[in-house]
Amino acid sequence: MEQGFSFDLGAFRAAYSRFLAPPAGDARPPILLTGHSHQAWPDAARDALVACFDDAARLVDDKWDAAVLPMLSAVGEAILERMGFERGDSIAFGQNTHELVYRLITALPRRERLRIVTTQGEFHSLRRQLARLAEDGVEVEWVSVEPRAALADRLLAALQPGTSMLAVSAVLFESATVVPRLEEIVARAVEIGAVPLVDAYHAFNVVPIAWGGASPHVFAVAGGYKYAAMGEGICWMRVPRGCELRPVFTGWFADFGSLAGSGGGVAYAPGGARFAGSTFDPSALYRAAAVLEHWDRFGLTVPRLRAISLRQTGRILDRLDAAGRGADVVSPREPERRGGFVAVRSARAGDVVQRLRARRVLVDARRDVLRIGPAPYLDDAEIDEGVAALLEELDR
């Protein structure tokens, strides 16, 4: 862990009094090995929901100017910093990454035929949307993620002139593989005139990304549901400075602060606001603001969260190896290539998830892969107990 950083786990766990409390009639709380999917919310998130209601009661419709818009700006700045971008860059918010990505797709420069390069390892929402667009004539090149060691080479080869967009994850959601040579891949997309989009959801707040030369050009989406512990309804897209794309899928919030439209055309606000939608429920934004303050209060920067995560996933791997299950591990062994969870292959993954749930140990599965996701509020005893239960169910 970062030199000189001391982490008071007891005080940190006390900030999760509701999620980590034993249910009525139970001797212990569930073991939440779902840190890669739905992290426990700190108590501050509950307080934020009350604050959202109280501001609405106090300000009524004036809450937008008095509370919500200033909070939107502050949250955006903090998120950009945690993503590895500069404060002051542009950001657009949405309820989910799908709406933001689709807005970007509808803004792609019109060509005779859209061509999008992506991988077969992207999350369901992007995979489904691109598959549907392919039915209507969009050319989609699906690059295989296996073998993963040569994934970057295959992506670079697929990025040929005439490509409209690159859509790739920073960390693959099924295996926790950190996609290598991301800066080089984005640079190739820019070279051929393609819009580069990186899904950073499985990196945000757990895997620092060194954007390097990609930073001036890349669109990057992420959200609060996973490692950020903000819950649902709060996602965002970092937008390169000077972006002038005009999404067809657009809402009236994208008109705030817009310049006069030329020739009576539809005008767009500058920066990330051009990708805005319409009226949204601000309670998710209140949660986000409170949880960002929670991370800062405990000194949990992204590098420190990364150090905690690598130690915990390393501990899980050690226990799997000791039990003779090392060959079933799908996740990379090298710390620099491993994201925030450990993936284990099992032909009965869905059954194992349900049996563990009955034992109050929560993991999840994607097809035949079990995902074991620690989180900073777990202690070593809980991790060991959870992995021991997993091993027992795998051996059944």
Number of helices: 11
Radius of gyration: 22 Å
Written as H for each helix and E for each strand, in order along the chain, the element string is HEHHEHEHEHEHEEEHHEHEEEH
The rounded distance between the terminal residues' Cα atoms is 37 Å
Which spans of ≥5 residues are poorly predicted at pLDDT below 50?
Answer: none
What is the β-strand count? Answer: 12
State the secondary-structure class: alpha/beta
Strand order of the largest sheet: 2-8-7-6-5-3-4
Task: Report what the structure shows.
It is a single chain. Helix content is 37%, strand content 13%. The protein contains eleven helices and twelve strands. The strands form three sheets. Strands 2-8-7-6-5-3-4 form a seven-stranded mixed β-sheet. A three-stranded antiparallel β-sheet has the order 9-12-11, covered by helices on one side. 43% of the residues are buried. The model has no long low-confidence stretch (mean pLDDT 95). Strand 3, helix 5 and strand 4 form a beta-alpha-beta unit. Helix 3 packs across helix 8 and helix 9 packs across helix 11. It is an alpha/beta fold and 396 residues long.
Produce a short descriptive summary:
The protein is α/β, with parallel strands linked by helices and 396 residues long.
List the helices and strands and how they pair.
Blueprint: H1 9-14, E1 31-32, H2 43-59, H3 63-83, E2 90-94, H4 97-106, E3 115-119, H5 124-135, E4 139-143, H6 151-158, E5 165-169, H7 182-191, E6 195-199, E7 219-223, E8 235-239, H8 283-297, H9 302-322, E9 342-345, H10 349-358, E10 361-362, E11 364-366, E12 369-372, H11 380-395
Parallel strand pairs: 1-10, 3-4, 3-5, 5-6, 6-7
Antiparallel strand pairs: 2-8, 7-8, 9-12, 11-12
